[in-house]
Amino acid sequence: ERRTRLFHCFREEGVRRPPSRLSASGTMRARSHCWSAGIGLCLLLAAGGHASEQPRASKRPNIIYMLVDDWGSYDASFRMRQLGREPQFETPNIDRLHHEGIGLSNYYVQLLCTPTRASLLSGRYSTRTGLYNTLIGNAEPVCLPTDLPILPQYFQELGYDTHMIGKWHLGMYNDSCAPWGRGFDSYMGYLTGSEGYTYHGTGAYLDFHECGPSYLHPNDTTSHRLLQTAQHARGKDSDVEAQGYIYYKTALAAGHDVLVGMFNLEDAKTWCSSNASCVGFTFEGPDKAPVDPVKVYFKSSLDMADDKTWNTYINVTDIPYDPGTPAGGPCSEYSGGGCAHEYEGEYSTQVYSRRLLQILDHYAHGAAPTRESGKVADRTPFFVYMPWQAVHEPMDAPEEYVARYQYIEDPSRRIYAGMLAVLDEAIGNITAYIEGDPELRDNTILVISNDNGGMSGTYGMGCCNCGTSCGGLNYPYRGWKSTYWEGGLRGIGAVWAPGFIRSRHDTNAFDTSTSLIYEPLMHVTDWLPTLISAALSRDSAEDRQEAHDRLRGLFERGAIDGIDQWQSLLENATTSAIPERGTYWNVESDSSTREIQRLRRASGPRQEVMHAYEPQHQHAAYTYQNYKLLLGNWGAFQHCDICNQTNGGVCCENIGGNPHHPQGPDWYNNFLLYDVVEDPRELNDLSLDQPDLLNEMMQRLFQYNETLVPDIHEAIDPQGNEHAAAVDCWSPWEGRVDEPLPMDLAFELDDDGMGVCVLETTDDEVVRTCTMDMIKKQEELHTPGIVSSGTDWNSVQAQ
């Protein structure tokens, strides 16, 4: 029945429509069944190839998703300028992603590492994954349920190669839970939640794993040269002039000459290509392609000199594709029994960026045939999931980067700035390489996002307590990582895709007033259907139908909460969102501007975000358009900002008093209501002034109670610690388990499209539990006296 309803929706509506806004009476109308199905096929499989103003090949785009750990939503120089401030430090390459792509201004993530990663990869709220807003312990015998398909599995069905680089933190007690058991063709990174940047371990044991094909292990000379090429090929004047060469308008420094002689351009390329010691050449003059001989300096090093009167060509001769012995073994056979040691002493951000450059180089020059049977393509499309270690504690960065910020006296903030500088440089190297290859440039989509708010508070790890904080800042928002305030949940991110977006606006004037900004509401769960839609955006109708057939089985494993926003991103981003000082981000903006902001925030396909509903932890948070509802224990309530220009650290204080005002004996009677457009600092509680709105939002929030999945967290397993000690490596201790985990959850839809029933598959039987039985089950498992969705919150207010 659900399948029939889905296809009916696909045929007759074509795209999912947003739910109705508040009606004239102030109530929220019910959502259409097509919207609430949440399965993502309605729009993503109906959407055509409207992605660019110029027609392009139907090849599916490469997709890179970067997740920056504990990155504060204030901590990019473009963001500081939006707020009308002089940047405390510069992030030029992150700024470029925002300026040349589409910035996200009403984007939400989860409050901690594990729940954000689970929601991102599965497209489901934490209430559907069982991984509530709590971290998975190193030796905890749980993981993101293996019966829930995740992004790499969808992309493999679409013919993509899939790679992961960085932090997992979604459980790893058996190999089927780890990245190599979840659909990634290659993996480099660590499985736990936190480790050192040069000592790649946590506590007494290492945690660094690697599996995948051998092209990810080029020799040191090739690797160093590849990194140098990317470092020096950035800039607006950079271009690919011919196979094997990147041109840029600047000079190579004096010295390291292999030969100096008179050559025209073609002869110079021929000579350099035939000599292994030549990495590039440089010559002076206005003509970048001289036909007549000019004095050419052939170099064995890529040391740069900033002189725009010179011309330089870098030799990027093809690196042969080597299908030989895999590095660390193929991921399909990798057991994770031991850790890789060869990267000890290397700073992880640089290790990870080099790995992505190696992946890019492989697809640029030596990619294998496509995995789709019977289909031939010049290059196989790839999906890379890259959750960086940076800028999570411990506070650590190479000294040469920290030394740039001696003017920041506070040590935590100074080191944090250095960590961001390494990350920003790495991102610049990656985008430079992409721009140096025309096909990569025109056919790659890169998304960058934080996983939660920055950690402005303190806790006893790394260098967090050697200064005022763990370095991160979320100004002007209240709260930080692990809280339900905007500071914990508000995302910072951008979509950079030169072949899809560049023609939409002028990229030469680096001015935030020309940046495209996407103001409709967006949540981290949206990336799954949005990126799949992007992958199919250039497909023919026949290929989209084939994709429909391939993905059907994955989508039918249960409703997702993500909403496809790809078409809306391309069509609804606007430059008018950010005038000189920034209307949206200007806390002092006038009432007419705020009304525009409300309308734009509600103008996309998403109208609500269910941040959390956790009776067992006694808190909940829910956003509808510009209103946000908080229940129970919502976390530290301070506001944080830069202490002063001299110290430069982060200071937190109580502005506006403690918002906690109990209104009843139970946690769900303690509630707050904010208009986060009017009041982004969450200072003015509206719950007593707007009881009807409060009641409607309470009713909607408690509808999610009916599909609440039990929390799957468990006590630490001593065998996990014993195994780590035995092999000196945090790794799976129960081997590979191919069948789904014991609790296999699938959701059904009632006649109104609401998921009110759940099937629980155990070893012995399948039990169907619906509506009030589910509520009773939650009472038994979690909190006595939980309120059902029938509560009259007006009467609660009166009490």
List the helices and strands and how they pair.
Blueprint: H1 2-12, H2 33-37, H3 41-44, E1 62-68, H4 77-82, H5 92-100, E2 102-104, E3 107-108, H6 113-122, H7 126-129, H8 151-157, E4 161-167, E5 186-190, E6 201-202, E7 205-206, E8 209-211, H9 220-232, E9 239-242, E10 245-248, E11 251-252, E12 257-263, H10 265-273, E13 280-284, E14 294-299, E15 304-305, E16 310-315, H11 348-365, E17 382-387, H12 399-402, H13 411-435, H14 438-442, E18 444-450, H15 486-489, E19 493-496, H16 498-501, E20 516-518, E21 522-523, H17 527-535, H18 541-555, H19 566-572, H20 591-601, E22 608-614, E23 619-624, E24 627-632, E25 639-642, E26 650-653, E27 671-675, H21 691-703, H22 718-727, E28 744-748, E29 757-761, E30 766-770, H23 771-781, H24 793-798
Parallel strand pairs: 1-17, 1-18, 2-20, 3-21, 4-5, 4-17
Antiparallel strand pairs: 2-19, 5-8, 6-7, 9-10, 10-16, 11-15, 12-14, 13-14, 13-16, 18-19, 22-23, 23-24, 24-27, 25-26, 28-29, 29-30
Helix pairs in contact: 9-11, 9-13, 11-13
Q: What is the compact description of this entry?
A:
28% of the residues lie in helices and 17% in strands. It has 799 residues and is α+β, with helices and mostly antiparallel strands.
